[in-house]
Specification:
globular, 7-stranded mixed beta sheet, single chain, alpha/beta, 10 helices, 6-stranded parallel beta sheet, 328 residues
């Protein structure tokens, strides 16, 4: 089988596509023919050894997957060979076949294609958990989404709108702002403009915003924090800018605001019931058609370097997907 094979930590442009033996199935696992795998910032960091934890070498990157079951371990119940499944794993999805723990699989709802299913596996579950459990977004509240055209950002725009919030999408160009509006933002702010904070003030008046979703980090997040309403919730999802800001303690004090870290990857260990709740909600939205994940680009496996570089260059609009089937 073909796979991206990391034998040493390097830039993705220096990592080869390899032919590897088909993996063996354990008793609690399934063998999945992968049709689509999500590409995220975490994947780009992992292959370079720059993520906060390091996968043991060698490894196959990729955590989000969608595909078809080809084999089942002896202890697996509730699934059948030939079923379409999706989910989230630690690594291994950027290969034509992957061994998946049965507990990490969900059936793909009817009408949802492989790319949309892979796109929903991480970003939409993460944002659902962030908005509902941590941000406790209420109908009618104002939610500001930074980086609103990226994978996490457009998911936050869509889901905050589904929850009945007034959504302000913030992005770095007019093109990206237009995309955020198409995704569901009622208002947009271009923080590439010098007067973007005045734009935000005009939209929120003296009250400010109730919830901020920040997958970007850097100076933009610090400046946005100053526009929080009393009792606001600031959700730290990531640092796509490459800069980790340092928040002065007086700001949350003056705003009566809360800074909340969002790390859905640890939910399975620390709060599996909350992860299950978020997954169930996303699956329900997918099943009903209320949610249609935004796929910003599909690349065949052979063009994996282009996919990673599109994400690194922040050119993506929505989720970047590797296709390992007919496009590969």
């Amino acid at each position: 089988m073909r796979a991206i094979h990391v034998t040493e930590f390097r830039n993705i442009n220096d990592i080869a596509l390899s032919d590897l033996p088909e993996p063996a199935i354990g008793p609690d696992q399934a063998l999945v023919r992968v049709h689509a795998a999500g590409v995220g910032f975490v994947d780009g960091l992992k292959v370079q050894g720059l993520y906060q934890t390091r996968d043991p070498l060698p490894f196959i990157p990729g955590s989000e997957f969608a595909g078809v079951i080809e084999g089942l371990g002896e202890n697996v119940r509730g699934f059948e060979i030939g079923e379409r499944v999706m989910g989230l794993v630690l690594n291994g999805s950027m290969a034509e076949k992957a061994v998946i723990p049965a507990r990490s699989m969900e059936r793909i709802p009817e009408g949802v294609d492989f790319s949309a299913a892979a796109a929903a596996s991480a970003n939409y579950v993460t944002v659902t958990y962030a908005l509902t459990e941590l941000g406790k977004v209420q109908k009618g509240e104002t939610v500001l989404v930074l980086g609103a055209s990226g994978g996490i950002g457009c998911a936050a725009v869509q889901l905050a709108a589904l929850l009945g919030a007034r959504v302000i999408g913030a992005a770095s160009s007019e093109e990206k702002c237009a995309f955020a509006r198409e995704a569901g933002a009622q208002e947009v702010v271009n923080y590439g403009d010098p007067d973007w904070r005045e734009q935000l003030k005009a939209l929120t008046g003296k009250r400010g915003v109730d919830v901020i979703v920040d997958p970007i980090g850097g100076e933009i997040g610090l400046l946005a924090f100053r526009h929080m309403a009393w009792g606001g919730r600031f959700l730290v999802v990531g640092f796509a800018s490459g800069q980790i800001p340092a928040l002065p303690y007086n700001l949350p004090l003056l705003k009566g605001a809360t800074l909340i870290g969002v790390d859905a990857a640890q939910l399975r260990l620390h709060a599996p019931e909350l992860r299950a709740k978020a997954v169930a909600q996303v699956m329900a939205w997918l099943q009903s058609g209320a949610l249609r994940p935004i796929v910003g680009g599909e690349y065949p496996l052979a063009r994996y370097k282009e996919a990673f570089n599109a994400l690194k260059g922040r050119a993506a609009r929505g989720k970047i997907i590797l296709r390992l089937d007919d496009l590969g």
